[in-house]
Amino acid sequence: MKIENRTFIVSGGSSGLGLATVQDLIQHGAYIAILDISPPPPSVVSSSSPSSSSSSPLTPSSSSFPSTSETPRALFVQTDIRDVAQIQDAVTRTVAWMKVTGAVLGGVINCAGLGRNELMINSKGKAHSTDIWDLTMSVNVTGTFNLTRLALEHLVHVEPEPTADGERGVVIMVASVAAFEGQPGQTAYAASKGALRSMTLPMARDLARHHIRVVTLAPGPFTTPLTGQLSDKVHTAIIKAGVLYPKRYGTPGEFAETVRWAIGCAYVNGETVGLTGGGRIPAFL
Fold first, then answer.
1. To the nearest 10°, the Cα dihedral for 100, 257, 15, 142?
2. Could you say which residues of the chain have pLDDT below 70?
3. Residue 234: CB atoms within 10 Å
4. CB-based contact 21:10 (threshold 8 Å)
5. Please, what are the domains in the chain?
6. Which residues have C-beta within 8 Å of that of residue 34, sequence separation ≥ 6?
7. Catalytic annotation, residues
8. Residue 58 has what pLDDT?
9. Angstrom distance (rounded) from CA 235 to CA 85
10. Which spans does this entry mark as compositional bias, Low complexity (predicted)?
């Protein structure tokens, strides 16, 4: 599927792998609706003057950085991915924005996610909290599910591309190597990423009649704000034990390139694709 002059909804697009994806797709001619709690860097989305119509779905708020703001290639809608009403509002605003730009919907890229480590039984004999479990599932699984289903209500009505395949769009989800090889303390995180992996094929089968593909990416160790919180000792252990070659973390740019490949390659569908440097994470680092 072509990227140029198509609109992609990217959750978690203000930082990390999501931000790299936004920047890469914009460079290749896409329009991006960024859904995140925090705004992206001003270089990606800057505030604009309020619309003359107060009822316009694109009217920015009066905050120092508007909850909704627009540039020719990017729209930021402040969204808590745990709140289905906010997701619905963000999709509605995106659809209104597409009518202004003329760039039809091309897909949804679910980069919003979090990781919280906790042992099933900690050193004091206390059981894993339900708070960590519920938060992880609400963001990583339910947030992905809700954004995808609400975006699909519009994607299924997009005019098919004028090609033999007649493709309408693509859904991309972001799992993790933890979906296959979770570490101690990653029960909730691994369960959430494993759920995305398990959703991939049935979702692709559901959407095949609409000519919409589903691809899940499962990155290993990447340079992100999350891994930036780890100690040098842990970084060294991960690279030594969990990466074959090249002996380093993946870069956000490499992740973004893979997203672009998944969008462009019509024959990748219903699969979870690893980005691991050939490594496998052992039981203990």
1. 80
2. 45-71, 225-231, 233-235, 285
3. 12
4. yes
5. 7-275 (3.40.50.720)
6. 10, 13, 14, 18, 22, 40, 44, 45, 74, 75, 76, 77
7. 189
8. 41
9. 39
10. 44-69
